[in-house]
Amino acid sequence: DSLAAEPYLAIYWHRSAAAPRPRAGSGQSAHALVRHARRYMKRYGLRRIFLATNSNDRVELAQVNAKLRPAQYSPPADTALDATAMMSVRAAICSMAPYFVGSRATELTGMILEERVSVFGHAAETGVEMSVDTNQTGDASPPRDPVRPPAVRIDSMAAARHKDEL
């Protein structure tokens, strides 16, 4: 199956080898990732997902794979790529994707977001960082809609003395 056949959401999900698996309600747990992905798929009418991750946690990956059925890059069997080369290929796929969601505050997410705009000409609002989950119910907090900025009311404009007060 080719991702080029229709628009898709690319996700870069960074997992720290040093940190324990986060609980379901924390910022970028497997549960939160699935919620973010489904939200963006619904918002943009997408059916396909590409997942780039450094996770080797079989439980988390099984949960994500069962719920999202993402495409992932695997090199041909006769090709030997080290982990850095593999992530470079995955980052390129994310950069080319029509839509992108990346782990918050990671160097690779920043690079992908920049490359999407400067190299591939995607609109900046089609790529975002995952929001941090702040509630305790296990539900991911909804990210601010990148397409629709917060509304400024006309009556607040008259009372504002500078742009920071809007």
From TrEMBL:
This is Uncharacterized protein. It comes from the Eukaryota. Residues 132-166 are annotated as: Disordered.
